[in-house]
Design a protein that fits this description.
Layout (H helix, E strand, L loop, with lengths): L1 H17 L3 E2 L16 E5 L1 E2 L11 E2 L2 H21 L5 E6 L6 H14 L4 E6 L6 H7 L5 E7 L3 H6 L3 H4 L2 H11 L5 E8 L6 H14 L3 E6 L4 H10 L8 H14 L3 E5 L2 E4 L4 E3 L9 H12 L9 E3 L12 H4 L5 E2 L4 E4 L2 E5 L3 H9 L5 E6 L2 H14 L2 E3 H8 L3 H4 L1 H9 L3 E4 L3 E4 L1 H26 L4 H8 L5
Parallel strand pairs: 2-5, 2-14, 3-4, 5-6, 6-7, 7-8, 8-9
Antiparallel strand pairs: 1-17, 9-11, 10-11, 12-13, 15-16, 16-17, 18-20, 19-20
Length: about 475
């Protein structure tokens, strides 16, 4: 649609302008502002297998590389404490944070000793959803996010995940068994794979519901330049013309049925004690008939109460998947971590070797930075709060000195013209279904821009590390 194409081009151009790295001379991050609420991000850049669609900083796992890295990340955490930071929330991303479980547990324990930590979120892979891991993570991690991507076995094979992480059926059973260990169990999914059909997507949604996961996140496939070649060689060329229809199907089957409620534009929290259909396996195999039958199921014209289950999780109490919604500013530790403080965005070195050397010399590891203008900061707030489904107009004016209408006249005119806002008064903005999809487009393009920023940092790799990463599939 026209609005999507225009928005894609606009965000693409904006990110090219302000997501450019300049050399960073600072040896330590700025001190915290009194009274400001921050979250701590930790990055663990090691994986057993490198996925072709991933642009995050990641390297093939080696214990010799990973063990000293964890030790240095704990040293860097102490540096933040010395600067005066405190945190009530930690998000651990990767890579695969659980790749050395004892090291991860020691790191989490130190964070709880140093800071006022109330909740810890960590990512993991399906092969780590086993009792010996879950028992150590229980109590240490409140929200565990498992990278599923799809339950479809053919897609898993395309992504080179089937052999390592198991079949879709095995992964679903592991999520079901792991869920009771955590306050929130999130199933990370990706939609709009080139080989994915509507039936594949419906099946993925069905399995998410059956798995008992208290939360699911459906990310659109993001074909940033660094992964376009590997994507084309493995799963095919991305077709964005299908993305809106796929997103509508996800919202219809998760939200409109009452099974889940929106936590952000692409995060869905399971509702408490909602009777929800658990299977669409009885739908006809013919695509046109299957679509007609699904529409009837959505409108309540088909299905049986015997094919449903009582959901025991509360959507309103679920922890948000995207930390950028609740925490606008966050220091990041670890190789490849990205920090946002004030008007500055810092990128830590992507070299594990250089990272270790910097920390061991008493410095932090920022290798590049970019500075946001006032307009850039307003655009970032606009996008992130709408991604979280509500923009507070009074808070916007208090923080930036102008109303959102005066500060971002083109953005507001665009969204109003295309019917993006449900509530638009003196206090707040909320979104229509069409508006939610436009925010998905914005976030997709913004994260592609961030991936381009990562590519700038990754380009500085040399020698053994460059060979190790690029020979492993990062083209």
């Amino acid at each position: 649609m026209l609005s999507e194409r225009l928005l894609t081009l606009a965000v693409e151009q904006c990110t090219k302008q302000y997501l450019k790295l300049s050399p960073c001379e600072e040896k330590r991050m700025p001190k915290p502002e009194p009274g400001k609420n921050y979250m701590l991000y930790m990055h663990v850049p090691f994986c057993e297998r490198l996925c072709p669609y991933c642009s995050f900083n990641r390297f093939p796992f080696s214990e010799d590389r990973a063990k000293p890295y964890f030790a240095n990340m704990r040293k860097e955490m102490k540096m933040l404490h010395e600067l005066g930071y405190d945190f009530d929330s930690v998000y651990i991303g990767g890579g695969t944070p659980t790749i050395m479980l004892d090291e991860l547990c020691e790191t989490i324990d130190q964070a709880r000793d140093l800071f006022s930590i109330k909740e810890v979120s960590s990512e993991t892979n399906p092969n780590h959803l086993i009792p010996s891991y879950l028992e150590k993570l229980e109590g240490r991690v409140q929200r565990l996010s498992v990278g599923v991507q799809s339950f479809d076995n053919d897609l898993l094979k395309q992504m080179d995940r089937f052999e390592k992480y198991g079949s879709g059926e095995e992964i679903m059973e592991r999520i079901r068994e792991a869920s009771p260990y955590f306050v929130s169990m999130n199933a990370d999914m990706i939609f709009n794979f080139p080989a994915q059909t509507e039936d594949n997507l419906i099946s993925d949604i069905e399995r998410v519901i059956e798995s008992g996961a208290s939360q699911t996140t459906f990310y659109p496939l993001m074909a940033s330049p660094s992964v376009q070649k590997s994507l084309a060689q493995t799963v095919g060329k991305v077709d964005y013309s299908r993305e809106r229809r796929f997103y509508e199907i996800i919202c219809e089957l998760l939200v409109d049925t009452g099974a889940f409620e929106l936590g952000s534009a692409w995060t869905f929290n399971r509702r408490e004690t909602a009777a929800v259909p658990l299977s669409t396996s009885s739908l006809p195999s013919d695509p046109s008939l299957r679509s007609e039958a699904r529409d009837g199921w959505l409108s309540g014209k088909s299905g049986s109460s015997s094919n449903s289950a009582q959901v025991l999780r509360s959507g309103s109490d679920a922890m948000i998947d995207e930390y950028v919604v609740n925490y606008e500013e966050y220091p990041a530790i670890g190789s490849g971590g990205i920090t946002y403080l004030g008007s500055n965005l810092y990128v830590n070195t992507f070299s594990v070797r250089d990272y270790n050397a910097a920390i061991e010399s008493g410095s932090m590891s920022m290798m590049g930075k970019t500075q946001f203008s006032l307009t850039d900061r307003m655009r970032y707030r606009f996008m992130m709060q709408l991604f979280g489904l509500r923009l507070d107009k009074r808070e916007f004016k208090r923080d930036f000195g102008v109303s959102v209408e005066r500060g971002l006249p083109l953005e507001m005119a665009f969204m109003r013209t295309f019917g993006a806002f449900d509530i638009d008064n003196d206090e707040e903005l909320t979104l229509t279904p069409k508006g939610r999809y436009l925010v998905v487009v914005m976030m997709r393009q913004f994260f592609i821009g961030v991936n381009n920023l990562r590519d700038q940092a990754r380009a500085a790799l040399s020698g053994e590390e460059r060979e190790l990463l690029f020979s492993a599939g990062c083209k």
